[in-house]
Design a protein that fits this description.
Number of helices: 7
Largest sheet: 3 strands, antiparallel
Order of helices and strands: HHHHHHEEEH
Number of domains: 2
Strand order of the largest sheet: 1-2-3
Number of strands: 3
Helix content: 40-55%
Length: 178
């Protein structure tokens, strides 16, 4: 079976595409929010609260195999569902609490922005000599480690291709036997 691998440019563009989709969803939700609700201070507090909830929903630290354990999010799916159901119920009970409901549109924007920050600024896309492909590397103290196999990045060991050849897909086991 041939292993399918995305090219490095597509791996670099992926987080940006994800961010654009989240930005479009959030901007649509902001546009449908009535102007009278946007002017209320409770709306701004709800935006801030939903951004904090989005941060608590993301993992605190990612796992590096054979190196360090990750720390999960402080808020799980159950708590997030409970918060969303409670906010939706409050909006149906009283019109005075509608700014809180509309303020939850800050969650998707904050969540996608935080995910892109995690992928683009806390990781690097580098060639892994052990995985024989480009992988995201995570920093632990001063060194970078592969998020897939846990090997340390070494710029002195050349990857499987030279820069002049460009990116080549990794060899399969049947090609190695020839």
């Amino acid at each position: 079976m041939i292993a399918r691998e995305l090219s490095p440019w597509l791996k670099r563009a992926g987080p940006w595409m994800f961010f654009v989709v989240g930005l479009l969803v959030s901007s649509y939700l902001f546009v449908i929010t009535p102007v009278s609700i946007v002017q209320m201070p409770l709306y701004a507090l709800s935006l801030i609260g939903s951004a904090v909830l989005a941060r608590l929903f993301l993992p605190i630290r990612q796992t590096i195999p054979k190196r360090r354990r990750g720390r999960g999010p402080l808020v799980g799916w159950g708590v997030l569902a409970l918060v969303w159901i409670t906010v939706a119920t409050l909006g149906r009970v009283s019109d005075a609490l509608l700014p809180i409901v509309y303020g939850m549109v800050g969650f998707p924007l904050a969540w996608t922005a935080l995910l892109v920050w995690e992928l683009l600024w806390k990781t690097k896309l580098l060639p892994c000599s052990k995985c024989d492909t480009f992988k995201y590397f995570l920093r632990d103290k001063r060194n970078w480690f592969c998020s897939n196999c846990g090997s340390k990045y070494s710029p002195h060991r050349p990857p499987y291709t030279s820069a002049a050849e460009g990116w080549q897909p990794p060899k399969t086991k049947s090609e190695d036997r020839r």
